[in-house]
Each structure stands twice: as C-alpha cells, then as structure tokens.
Fold:
Amino acid sequence: MSTQTISVDFPNDILLALNESENDLKERIKITLAIQLYKLQKLTIGKAAQLSGMSRFEFEKELSKNKISISNLNEEDVLSDIEKLK
Structure:
C-alpha cells in the first residue's frame, strides 16, 4: 500500500494576509479537512485524527472545541441498544 503526498504552494500575499507561515496554514487546512470529512461521515474518528496529524485524544479535544460530537449515534441507535440490553 503506497501513500501519496499532495504538495500545495500558497502565494506569499495570501500568507501575508493571513499572517501565517505556509506550514501553519497547511496544518490548519489538514485539521479543517479532517473535521469536515468526519462530520460528513466519510472518515472514522481514528482515520480523521490520522489525517489531521493529531492523536485521537487531541482530535477529540479539537472536535469538542468546535462543538462537534465525538459519537455518531443518534437517539434511535441509543434506544435500540437499550432494548437489546433488556
């Protein structure tokens, strides 16, 4: 299994406008992408954490900071599980 790296270069005026280094911007984009893919249920929380470059715990803290649930269970799932336990 091979891994591919995507290289993106940002214009200097964009970096100046954002007052960020290119590395900082790339890191922020990776985290934002991982969060979005997790929210869309395209990636599990573990894979999204891997994409973000964070540990799972750090990624869960980032989700919490952004008010995003770390569980994809809905009310129906929880009620179904309760019935199964009876």
